[in-house]
């Protein structure tokens, strides 16, 4: 009959579909209960179903049925046909299969690949360096992650960017240990770096743990900020961080950095002078112009906005530290860039002309900026409107994808919470 043919066709489709979908990947947290559903099984006995599992605990396939005895405390078939593992362990990783026949005689197979995981404690940086020496290899610290499964990996970051060991400036020594009883992993990663002279003075290091299973979140250590020192001039083999008192800062350690480089600036420009004096705690910085102290509150940065002729001169800074005494930086000179003869001889004659030119240029510039702003705002609005039109379907798709993704690994976890124990 036609109806019978349709049913048979449907069964064929379902069988093919089952063959195509293959194993469903399940991740379960160690120590938690796991429930695997036997698809297509009647909700209540009598049922025709059979569970088969091949895991670290079985030699070959182990068969469990609703009528049979539970397998010690490892696994048992629930009244609704699902398989319960009261507390998942590393040995339960493997393949789980169920074959069920419905009341109408339809056979359904469920295939699961179970992988287990354990989230380690928050990684930590142990034995962190207190400071680093430029030009030589320094141990920054050892990152430790304890109690994870599967092993996962540790990686280091400098100022937020991942550090790739290159065997030269950056090297990493790794060690993976496994607890003899629990089988959980402890990872160690020791970082050595050779800071370049003239590089960043306050690099920030952190370490993160990346789980060995996909879709699990990474864990991060608290960052550590270190101070980079340049080497002693005499090079008498300083021992990093052992004797702070040995770090009397040589004179050239107090450095004056000028921006723009060279100290030449156009009239009305801005000059920034930064006094770099490596010491802990930070020393007091005073400023000197043409040999005379500037009457300013102490601070490591001297900003000269709208530079005029009166700002030209020779600048230096003095770092005063209680244990080191005052140390002066080298001097830099600030000068105005001469924009041709008119600039320097700008007197009563040329002045007004230049001022008018500057004024009209200023107005033109202002108008241009306003036009540009309006343009940007209009463009932004149009984009927003178009974005809203497009957003709705996009979001839906994303959500659906996410749900589809979550379905597989999260299914057992959702089931876990409903069992609540053996
Ligand atoms: C399950 O994981 C295996 C590798 O472990 C992969 O090849 C397979 O595509 C995954 N199956 C699904 C349905 O995600
Ligand atoms: C079977 O029962 C368990 C525990 O009561 C439950 O977690 C699971 O979702 C049930 N399975 C089905 C297919 O209803």
TrEMBL record:
One of its GO terms (biological process) is positive regulation of gene expression. Residues 395-414 have a biased composition (Acidic residues). It is a single-pass type I membrane protein. Pfam families: C2-set_2 (PF08205), ig (PF00047), Ig_3 (PF13927). The keyword Transmembrane applies. CDD domains: Ig. Residues 383-422 are annotated as: Disordered. GO terms for molecular function: DNA binding; laminin receptor activity; RNA binding; S100 protein binding; signaling receptor activity. Keywords: Cell projection, Disulfide bond, Glycoprotein, Immunoglobulin domain, Membrane, Receptor, Repeat, Signal, Transmembrane, Transmembrane helix. Its main location: other. It is found in: Cell projection; Membrane. Residues 1-22 form the signal peptide. This is Advanced glycosylation end product-specific receptor isoform X1. The lineage of its organism: Eukaryota, Metazoa, Chordata, Craniata, Vertebrata.
């Amino acid at each position: 009959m036609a109806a019978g043919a349709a049913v048979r066709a449907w069964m064929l489709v379902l069988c093919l579909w089952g063959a195509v979908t293959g194993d469903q990947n399940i991740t379960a947290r160690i120590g938690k209960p796991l429930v695997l559903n036997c698809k297509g099984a009647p909700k209540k006995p009598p049922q025709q179903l059979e569970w088969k599992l091949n895991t670290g605990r079985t030699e070959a396939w182990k068969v469990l049925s609703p009528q049979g005895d539970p397998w010690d405390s490892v696994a048992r078939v629930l009244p609704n046909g699902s398989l319960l593992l009261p507390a998942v362990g590393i040995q339960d990783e493997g393949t789980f299969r169920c074959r069920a026949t419905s009341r109408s005689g339809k056979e359904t197979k469920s295939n699961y690949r179970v992988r287990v995981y354990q989230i380690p404690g928050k990684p930590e940086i142990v034995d962190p360096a207190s400071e680093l020496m430029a030009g030589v290899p320094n141990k920054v610290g050892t990152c430790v992650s304890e109690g994870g499964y599967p092993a996962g990996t540790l990686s280091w970051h400098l100022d937020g960017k991942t550090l790739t060991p290159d065997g030269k400036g950056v090297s990493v020594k790794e060690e993976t240990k496994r607890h003899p009883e629990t089988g959980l992993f402890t990872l160690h990663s020791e970082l050595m770096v050779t800071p370049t002279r003239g590089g960043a003075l306050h690099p920030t290091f952190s370490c993160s743990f990346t789980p060995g299973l996909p879709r699990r979140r990474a864990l991060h250590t608290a960052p550590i900020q270190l101070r980079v020192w340049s080497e002693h001039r005499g090079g008498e083999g300083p021992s990093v961080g052992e004797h702070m008192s040995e770090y009397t800062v040589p004179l050239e350690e107090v450095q004056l950095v000028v921006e723009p480089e060279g100290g030449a600036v156009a009239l009305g420009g801005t000059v920034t002078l930064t006094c770099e004096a490596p010491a802990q705690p930070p020393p007091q910085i005073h400023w000197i112009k043409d040999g005379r102290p500037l009457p300013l509150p102490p601070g490591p940065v001297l900003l000269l906005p709208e530079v005029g002729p009166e700002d030209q001169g020779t600048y230096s800074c003095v770092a005063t530290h209680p244990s080191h005494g005052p140390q002066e930086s080298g001097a830099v000179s600030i000068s105005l860039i001469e924009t041709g003869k008119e600039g320097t001889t700008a007197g009563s004659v040329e002045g007004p002309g230049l001022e008018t030119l500057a004024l009209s240029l200023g107005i033109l510039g202002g108008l241009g900026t306003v036009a540009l702003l309006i343009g940007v705002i209009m463009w932004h609005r149009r984009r927003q409107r178009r974005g809203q039109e497009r957003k709705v379907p996009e979001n839906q798709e994303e959500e659906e994808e996410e749900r589809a993704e979550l379905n597989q690994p999260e299914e057992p976890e959702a089931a876990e919470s409903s069992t609540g124990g053996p």
